[in-house]
Each structure stands twice: as structure tokens, then as C-alpha cells.
What we know:
Chain A contains four helices and nine strands. By secondary structure, chain A is α+β, with helices and mostly antiparallel strands.
Amino acid sequence: MLLRALVTVAFMFLLLPAPAWAQGSASLEQLQLSRGEDGLRLAYGVKLELPRAAEDALHKGVPLYFAAEARVARKRWYWRDATLGRAERQWRLSYQALTRQYRLSTGGLHQSYEGLNEALTAVRRASAWAIELREEPDPGAAYVLSFSLRLDTRQLPAPLQIGLGAEAEWGVRSERPVHPAELGLAS
Amino acid sequence: MSEGARGSRLGRWAWTLSLLTVAAASGVLAYLLSIGATTPSGFIERHQAWLYWLNLGVGALLGLVALGAALRLAWRVRRGRFGGHLLGRLALVFAAVAVGPGLLIYAVSYSFVNRSIESLFDVRLASALEAGLDLGRATLDAQVEDLSQLARQGARRLAEPGGAAATLALARLREQWDAQRVALLNARGEVLDEATPPEASLARQRLPASLLRQAAERGLVARLEGLEDEAAALRGEALIRVLVRMPVTLNLLDADRYLLVERQPPKAVIRNALAVQEANVEYQRRGLEREGLRKMYLGTLTLVLVLAVFVAMLLAIQLGNHLAKPLLLLADGMRQVAAGDLGRKPVLGSGDELSGLTRAFAEMTDQLGAARFEAERSVRALEAARGELQTILDNLTAGVIVFDRQHRVLRANPGAAAILEHELPEHEPLPADLQALDEQLWPRFAGLADEDEDFWQATLELRLRAAALPITLLLRGAQLPQGDWLLVFDDISEVVSAQRSAAWGEVARRVAHEIKNPLTPIQLSAERLQHKLEAKLAEESDRAMLVRAVTTIVNQVQAMKQLVNEFRDYARMPAAQLAPLDLNGLIREVMGLYPDAVETGRLVAELENGLPALLGDATQLRQVIHNLVQNALDAVSERPDGRVVVNTKQLRHDDGSVRALRLSLSDNGPGFAEQVLTRAFEPYVTTKSKGTGLGLAVVKKIADEHGARIRLSNLASASNDPGGPPQGAVVSLTFANLAGGSAAS
């Protein structure tokens, strides 16, 4: 009995980084930056399939949180990169068993969807996400754009996080240099 | 030993470090366990995996340490190393005491936690809740369906031509349906006409475009809204909203129109449905969390067990070490003492009975060591005293021999062997050559006991070798306390010789005095006889006989006079008048008396220049040199290649100052006969056919007056054969009595 328990526990932890959460697929399809009147506009498209376990949890009433972050930074060799502009967005996706509706909230805005796919569509793409500029872009400097869209596992109920690990967040992460034209600078 | 000490220090460090680590890890885990799944942020849960691995690593490390310690212990037991068995048994006992209850508690806790978590979720309850939710959903759906039907009918009725005025009809419908709002909309969602309760707020939100679109497509859309926010829903903000496309009429004004009906579902239904939904969500979530909780609790429990077991083992080994250490120390000390090492023994400072024991043991060995040291010291002192005594005995010129009752030599000092000229081996009787001595001893020693005297004394003339003159021994015997016999003896030949010289001087003086007086009258009378009778004798032969007889008488009287004078001179030598004089000058003066010998090279002087002046009587020293030169020349007179060398030399101290002057005469004559050598300075000892034998006696006397040392020796034979004839003789005089300044040569 004791031996069995020990073996069980050992295996339990050997298989720890729950693979169910990593099964979903996520890939970046589009990431464009353009200069708007009062800042930058970001358009992105992500191919997103929820992991099986996440969908299961969602249908059992656990709300899922998605977080997107975009940051344009000026390269500095001598220090950390300086942030030119930065924007964050968070979604909360929940399922209402009574009405069989999916509800997506961002900021103070709520929207209900009949299907999961429709609800996720709102998360998957954006055409003009405004990024406020902190300073005027410098033509001589090099800029990078980093973008991430992920399932924020930190917002899950605590016991579900056991064994997920800090790095077990599911989503896309990308970083690429910014062309000066994208910042509205004459090339 | 130092390496071992270093090793044990390292080991102690390792123990301390690992124990600290374990304590820290156990603390972290205990913390995790206690707050476990209750942290709202989930921080610990997220990091639990690597914390777990970290702790597992620490556990493995501890396990290795414990294993290493156990193996070392086993090795020591196997090798029969001292104390290994005791340590091993103690460690086993402690480990059993610590690990057994731990395992029991673990087993019980494991099943308890497993069952508790299992009981958190019940499948039947879950399905019942699911069913309740379905019921609620069905109820709400029925409400929606009901309103949809009503709305469809209402739309038809409104669309009937000749229907009542729109606004009125809407108000009637609203009251009939108990709806919140009934409105007529156009295709763009703008309100054409509506009926609301009087207390309703004017603010109303625009209809979502999707609703209109769906209504356009399907003709009817019914939806229950406002349930997301439970509080709001319970306040009455939950709404069933139905949008129906109005049937197309002929007197259509423009495009499609829609009838919108909004009604609050019954509050009780809403409340119950929401409660069921909430419970269901909670319960489902609990089911989801079950696995995580089980992992965490059981994993932590197991980890704590593993750590506890290792800590217990380490502690067991450490405790065993701690308990066994004084005993091992004592036993080791005992072995050292048994082996004779009484050095300082280590003492434990823990202050309990065992350390008291080690302290007492250390004190005991200290005292033992002190006693032994004292004994050794007295033995050393004794040996030193004996050595000193031995040194004195060894350097004593007198002979000392201890005999046992069986007449065997127990001990003899080097002086005895030197005097007797024989080796005196211990535990053996005296050599056969010393028979004469041997015979003399025993009756006297035996007489000691008979006559109850302390010692006896006797002189003995002993001839050591056939050819040599006998030596005179002064013997003195005594009985030692333990019954052995002690013989002390000294060679008093020289003393006897000196006494003999003194006696001779006295005799010579008296004889000379008595004989000298009649000699002159005898000579004068004989001369007168010749003078008076020579002319009266007619016979030539008679005359010749007279002359011959008188001449004989005169000559013999002259010779006798000379003899007597010499005796007188020897006996009545005046005291030396010491004054600084130049030795080399004196020698040259004397050599002037032997011009023939110097010219023929039989007499050679080898004088060192710059001799300091010595204090001496010139007349006496001149006689000394004269006697010695004459003796030497006499010795070589027989040899055609005879040669006499007169040599002077300075003897110096170590610091270079002049210590003494040495005058030596060497010849290549036959040398001294052996029996002469020891008694050469006694008067009337001579090897010459004519001579009084006083020459060397006078030299000795003068040398004594001047405080000079005189030595006679034979030159070794050319063939280095000690038994062969000597190759000449050397006489040397050493004058230590120097004048202050250096005399010019």
C-alpha cells in the first residue's frame, strides 16, 4: 500500500506539466502595424484552438481569461529597450449553463455568443488596436514589435494551477523588427 | 591523525549543512501544506512543481548522505573497526524508533487524505445537480417559448387589418401579457410605437443588430438576457426578449416591422435556477480541482515522509555518534594506556556523566604519566651520578679492582689495567702472569675478616715481564658491604726512585766528606816518597818500579778525588740562581767545547730563532747541556755515522702565545736499555763502562730545580718492529718558567 502510494505519487509528478493544457494549437497568422492619427494601429490575426482541458473547464463553469499585449520598443544597446508604445487587453470568457451562452467581457463591455467559436472570434483578431505613443519615433533608431496573446492561467482557480508551472501558459508570442514605414516615417 | 580530524570536521560541516537544508525544505513544504490550495492568487500552486522537484532533489541529496553514512558504518562494522558495532547498533535502534512511527502515520494519513478528497466529489450528486440545472433551463425555456407564442399571436393580431390603434393595442397586449415592454420597430430597429409601464425609465438601450438580423432571417428570436449578473438578475433586470417579424400586410407602409416583447421571468424561477447553476458550477469545479488537490496533498505528504525519514536517519546516525563517542574515546584511551602511551587524553566538554568519565580517565592517565615521569627522572639522576662516578674511576690513575669471593674480577678500572699492563676481563680470575700478585691478595683479604680490620695495606715488587725492572705497587684492600673485596693499588715506583735518589745524595755527601780528607795526604806522601827515594835507589829497575808505583798511586788518587768531587757536587748542589738567559746562546757556548764533533758533523744544532728568555741558572743549565751532549756523544762513539742533534723549539698556547721552550737531544745510538729507562735518573745507574752514573741524576735534579719536565724515550726501530732494537734515544726538557720579555738570539 505504501509502496503503491509512493509509486503513484512519483508518477503523478513525473507527468506533472499537465499536457492537456498544452494540446490546443495557437499560431500567429497576421501582425501588422500602421501609423494612425493619434498613435499606432495594430492589426493581428491568430489561429486559436482552445485546449481540450480548457474547454472542459469552461463548460464546467470556470471562466477563462485571455490576455493580449503589444509593445513597440526602441532598441538600446546600453540599457533595456525603451518603450515607445504599449497596449494591453484582457478578455474574460465564461459559459452560462442556464442559457447555454458564452459571454465575453473586455473592459466594461459584455457580449453574449451562442457558440464558442463565435465568442473566440472576437479574441482571435483585431483590425485597429490603438497603441498610444509615448514619444515621437526616431528615424535613426531601430524598433521592435513584440506581441503576445495567451491564456492567462494565473486567473484560474488555485487548485487547477497545480503543476501548470509559470511557463505553462498557452498562446502565441512573437517579436519582430519594425519597418520605419510602419511607424509613419519616411523611409 | 590530523587528516582524520580534518575529515571529521568536514563531515560535521556536511551534516550541519544538510540538516539546515532539510529543515528549510521541510519548512517550505509544511507551509505549502498548511496554506495549500487556499491561496487566492495561486502563486504557490504555480510554483509547486519546481518546488517539489527542488525538495525531491534535497531529499535525494539527503538520501545519498544517509546512504553514504550507512555504507561507511557498514564498512566499519565489516572491517571490524573499533566502535563500529556499537555505532551501528545505536544508529539502527534510533532509525527504527524514528522511521517506524513515521511510516505508520504516513500510511494512515495517505488513505485518509485520499478518501477525504475522493469524498469531495460525488458523481450522483453531480448528476443530480446537472439534472436540476436542466430542469431550470427547461423551465426558463418554457417561459421563453410561452412568450414567443404570445408574441407571435400578438403580431398576427396586430397585423390584422382593421386592428385597433397601434398604441392602444400595444398597451392592451402589454397588460394582457404582463410584459415590461411591447414595442413596434422598423427594420432598422427604430421604435415606431411602444407601450411601457409608467414607472419604467426612459433610458433604453438599442437593440443589438444581431437580434434584428436573426429576426429578419428566422421571423422570430427569443432570448433570455441579463442572467450573467446574478445580483442584477435578481433585482429584476433579467429579461425574456422576443422579437417577431410582423406578417406582411397589404397595406404595408414601407418595409418590415417587428414586434418586440420584453417580460421579466418569474423571480422565484430565476432565483432557483441561478442557485442551481451556481451550485452546479461550484460542484463541477470541485470535481476539476480534485486531481490537483490530491496531487498536492499526497505529494507533499510523501515528500515530508521522505524528508522526515532521511532526517531521522541522519539524526539517528548523528545521535549514535554522539552517544558512542565518549565510550569510543574511553576505550581508545584504554588501549593507548595499555600500549604504554600516557600522553594527554581528550576530554569531552558536554558536562554529562560520560564526559565526567572521560575527564576522570584523562586525570588518571595524567597522574600515571606524572608518576612515570618522576620515576624516569630519578632513574636518570641515578644514572648520571653513576656515570659521574664511573668517569672518576675511569680517569683515576690508581688501579681499582673489585673481586668476588671466588677471586674473580667483578670490575676493574682502566687505571688498573694500565698499571698491571694486562687486560682484566670481568668474571674471570687474574691472568696467570699476575700469579705473584694473586698469591699476595687472598691471605690478606681473608685476614680482614679474621682480624676484624677495615683494610689492609702492603707494598709489593712485581715483575711484569721477564726483561723489565720490577714495579713497586702500594696495595690496599678492603671489604665492601655486600661482601666483595675492593683492591686499590698504585704504582709507587717513581716515589721509591725519588726516595732512593735522596738517600743516595745523603750517602754520597757523607762518603765524599770522609774519603776526600785522606786523599791529599796520600798523594803528597807518595810524591814525597818518590822525591826522597828516587835518588837513593841505585838499581835502575827499582827506580823504575818506584816511579811506576807512585804514578799509579797519584793517578788513582786523582781519579778518586774526581769521583768524590762528583759525589759532592751531586749532593751539595747549590740552589739555582734564576735569571733570564738565552737558551740558544748557552747551547752554542757548550758546543764550542766540542769542536771536533762539530767539525766532523757528529754534533748538529737545529735551533729555533727568537726564543724568549727563560729563567734559569746559567751554570747549572750549562752543566745539564754538557752532560746530555756528552752522554749522547758517548752513545754514538761506537758508530762511524753517529750523529747527535740538539734542537730547540717554542711550544705555544692555542692563542699563539709561547707556553714553554723545549730542548731535545736525539742520537742514533743504541738507545736506552729497558731496565734503565725507568731508573735512568737514579744515581749510580749507568750503562757505561766508566762513569759514576751521576750524569742523568744531576740533570734530573737541575731540571727539578728549574721546574722543567724531563723525558727519556727510545726512537722506534726503523723496521717499525716494536720488539726490534731501538734506533736511538731522545732526551727532552721542557721549560715552562719563562722570563717576561723575549731575548734576542
